[in-house]
Amino acid sequence: MESQTHETTPKLNQSEGSTMPSNPMTNSQQPIDMLATRLAAWVARLRYDDIPDPAVHAAKLLLLDQLGLQINGTTLSSIQPGLRLVEEMRAAPESTVVRVGTRTTAAYAAFANGMLAGSSEFDDVHLYAGHIGSHVVPAALAVAELTGASGREVLAAVVAGAQVMSVLGGILTVQMEARGWHRSKILGTFGSAAAAGKLLGLTVQQLAHAFGISGSDASGGMEYEFSGGEVKRMHSGSAARLGVQAALLARNGLTGPLTIIEGERGLVRLFAGQEVDAAAVDRVWDRFHVVDTVFRMYPTIGSAATVLEGMSHLIAEDTVDWKDIAEIRVGLPPVAIGHGARTIHPTDAVTAQFSTAFGIALMLVHGSNQPADYMNPAMWTDPDIATVIDKVVPYERDFGLGASLLSARIDVTLSDGRVLSCEQHGFRGDPNDPGRDEAVEAKFRRNVDGIVTPLVADSLITLSLELEHQNDIAGLVRLTVLPRSGRPDHQLPEGVLPTPRLNAPDPHSMPAEVARYLADLPSDPLFTMLSHAVTVIRPQLEVARAIYTSLQLPARVRELAILVLAHEAGSDFVWDQHVPISEAAGVSDKIRQLIRRGDYRHDTLSEHDSTILRLTASIVSGPSVPDELFSAARAILSEREVVELLLVIGYYWTISRMSTVLDLQATTLYAQDFGTQWPDKVR
Questions:
Q1: What pLDDT is attached to residue 11?
Q2: N or C: which end of the chain has fewer CB within 10 A?
């Protein structure tokens, strides 16, 4: 077969719309030994409006990719030790851990979500920074939740963190990895500090000290690549935590060495064994580097993903039976030989994902390269896979000046003497891939499939890609606490309805007057469960009747509050029941969609509706309501209406929890005439 060449990864400096507005590293009165201060000055000055559209869009894709990876990561056993640690800390409830919903400090939410982000070796790749998303995004979201930052502020923070990682990585990457240091862990500490400091509103001096503090904590070796160890999953979380912590400490007055990058005992000399090259710094400060992010479509290290992309082309063009292969020669850049090619037969999931040969064997023998394949112990010892691994011969190859580090030459020699060849530069998911957006979205859906509902997946995609329109990220965060209803472990086949966890009571065992009372009510799973409490079911339903017949609170306000409560409590039972009731009360489908997304500040909402939605969400999350929000509510609600609203929320919180704990089937049995005919039945 004639050799094929596939170009996927762009050369740096080719992406459109990424030009930097200014370069703080040049034309400065400061000497080269103040890089931390110069970086801090740029981060502090950066505004959302300064960022070109391609960079903003790349930041949005990073966020979407990260949410999928983090949600999926909660299902992996290797991450549970970290999640348990955070849960056991019982720390101040500042920020949220994805899916499990644990509330902890911003620093440790960044730690937990960062671990989830790096849990499957499936996050993004950047030729300078390593992996931006799994370090910067968890830090940015955790601090944004703490500060109430807007979507635009979050995006600017992600771009700032990406830039700091990339500029530092541009002068350190090759040397760091050659010495065995994990560049993403080290650079990610600085990037996370930049993102966190940006959102905290640190001054230039405080940001510079945050970098000094970060450098004092930055470290991380890569021995796991050869001898295994799931500790690799912790690296991104640890860096995110350290960066957030450094920013908070700097805000509180702690100082760090301002020559942390280029000083005699600074980052460059310690981790790369060299001095800072001012010209090298100038060369990498020419663009918004976030635009060069590549999104992995294979759960392996980047150099292995390039090989797998090339192999996929060969397999598509020629039918190849692995049993007919005599040898597979793989030419790689020098850095890839020491990072992926040296690991051969895996002993755990980490070494499986770092073994280029194992990834090739998976593709050829089983035709699959999904995260579960790499985490399956049976695959590590599969004799057929082992046979193919032994046929892989990596060697160092020069791809020429300016060639991507994500390059590979593949020559597959068959037993009949034929040779199938391919030269691959990068892989799908890079900035110049016309299908990148669709590929990232499809990857997100695969990662969350079976964990969240399609509606939640759609909402997360919409909120991520329209983040600049959000006044805060509360709605986005709430959607990640999943599942939205029922027990987390309660998975049912499609079409199978849940059975309540309690049996229906025997009507013959209850007082006659209660049995007669229930006999007049519609057949409903909620009434059935309430009838276990024979002495309180009638008063309970009398309260429900009063809510619909005796309140001064407007019906529309009542229904807005109930819908928010149902969303926040994760009760499909209450939500489905109140869709038609709310429609009859004047709540539009557009507003219901916003509530379902947890978007209570959308610019299409009236100030009145936004206040009701935010007030209800604040009451549910408790324990109190901010003075400013309460004052806004008092401007539109009387004292009586405030108390009535609290009673409505309390009543439906009880109903919601009964539905989710007892697995009650959603019903709209009496939805259309709930406010008229049904209350008459509970007199």
A1: 37
A2: C
What is the mean pLDDT of the segment spanning 547-552? Answer: 91
Cβ(139)–Cβ(120) below 8 Å: no
What's the pLDDT score for residue 673?
47
pLDDT tens digits for 99-140?
A: 988 999 999 999 999 999 999 999 999 989 999 999 999 999
pLDDT at 18: 64
CA distances from 459 to 146, 182, 361 (A): 22, 35, 38
Residue 141 has pLDDT above 90, yes or no: yes
Q: Which residue has the tokens 């805060």?
A: 472
Give exposure, 380-409, as e/b (b: 16+ Cβ within 10 Å). bebeebbebbebbebeebebeeeebbbbbb
Q: Which residues are registered as beta bridge partners of 294? A: 125
So what's the pLDDT on residue 532? 81
Asked which of 143-152, 169-178, 393-402 is least confident by mean pLDDT, the reply is 169-178
Q: CB neighbours (10 Å) of residue 510?
A: 17
Q: Choose among 556, 559, 577, 546: nearest CA to 655.
A: 577
Report yes or no: 170 and 219 within 8 Å, Cβ to Cβ: no
Mean pLDDT of 596-609: 89
Strand pairing class (392-396; 325-332): parallel
The SS3 assignment for 47 reads coil
- Judged by average pLDDT, the poorest of 82-96, 360-374, 469-483 is 469-483
Strand order across the beta sheet in which 4-7 lies: 4-7, 419-425, 407-414, 325-332, 392-396
Long-range contacts of residues 51-55, Cβ cutoff 8 Å, at least 24 apart: 51/155, 51/156, 51/159, 51/288, 52/17, 52/18, 52/19, 52/288, 53/17, 54/15, 54/16, 54/17, 54/18, 54/288, 54/291, 54/431, 55/17, 55/18, 55/159, 55/288, 55/290, 55/291
Cα separation, 105 vs 421, in Å, equals 52
Higher pLDDT, 49 or 471: 49
Residue 220: HSE in the Cβ half-sphere, 13 Å Cα cutoff: 25
Cβ atoms within 10 Å of 29's Cβ, excluding its own: 5
Q: How far from the centroid of its chain's Cα atoms is residue 93's Cα?
A: 19
Beta bridge partners of 407: 425
Q: What is the mean pLDDT of the chain?
A: 86
Q: Can you tell me the distance from the alpha carbon of 173 to that of 648, in angstroms, rounded to the nearest whole number?
A: 58
CA distance 408 to 420: 14
Three state DSSP letters for 516-532: HHHHCCCCCHHHHHHCC
Copy the structure tokens of residue 80.
């549970």
Burial class (CB in 10 A: 0-12, 13-18, 19+), 341: buried
Taken as a whole, the chain contains a residue count of 683
Of the given ranges (275-279, 394-398, 634-638), which has the lowest mean pLDDT? Answer: 275-279
| Centroid of chain to Cα 229 | 23
Q: Give the separation between CA 328 and CA 8, rounded to whole angstroms.
A: 22
> What does the block give as tokens for 189?
């500490």
Q: What does each C-alpha distance from 414 to 82, 327, 367, 418 come to in angstroms? A: 46, 7, 18, 5
Decide if pLDDT at 21 tops 60.
Answer: no
Are the CB atoms for 89 and 104 separated by under 8 Å? yes
Provide the b/e sequence for 136-169 (b: ≥16 CB within 10 Å): bbbbbbbbbbbbebbbbbbbbbbbbbbbbbbbbb
DSSP sequence for 566-605? HHHHT-HHHHHHHHHHHHHTT--HHHHHHHHTT--S-TTS
